[in-house]
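Q: What structure does this chain adopt?
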Amino acid sequence: MVENNGAIRTLSVDIGGSGVKVLVLDITGKPLTQRARTETPQPAKPEAVIDAIVTLAATQGEFHRVSVGFPGVVRGGVTQTAVNLNPDWIGFDLATTLSNRLNKPVRVINDADMQGLGAISGKGVELVITLGTGFGSALFVDGKLVPNLEMGHHEFRKGETYEEQLRRATLEKVGEKKWNRRLEKAIAFLQHLFNYDYLYIGGGEAVRVDIQLPTNVKIIPNITGLLGGIALWKD
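A:
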């Protein structure tokens, strides 16, 4: 599982509701290739998404193992929920199926969890939220992951969930000003709920955040969702 120089190369995959992205990382998590992206197939059924990953992987050169961030609950490589993809994902063994297609070992984790692994400092209580097709979340305590938080589907305000109030479709409907006011309220709620030391905001719509953020809140680039892939292999 190594190159001639002894370096392990990891293909990192980020499956999103709107796009599928891949990138190869070295053993330290440093990118070795340019990120490749394609639109998420519609309907976003397992076979179509896996075909897209295989096609993207062919553009990335040599790799020895694969890390996948998936937008839903994942247990033992099996996807349990997929609100923003397709019901066919429920109970689907993504790790085994993709491993067979790529002939490489594969590990799968929730996409917000993987983004968090690429962002956190490893000290104290750290919360990650991702703003995109949906609303992802990840919680870490002294660098240890509390898996499958899926906070986005819990009630936030006015009888709606965090995802319903802050997802991309809502942003396009209500406009950036109102969306940012909602995000400001969400940050305050989450601070009181988790008493976090740091909050990281990522995802494709994080670039549209336009409010004064508290000193312990940081915007992280969308590529962080791929950079966290190396952490899945740190046993």
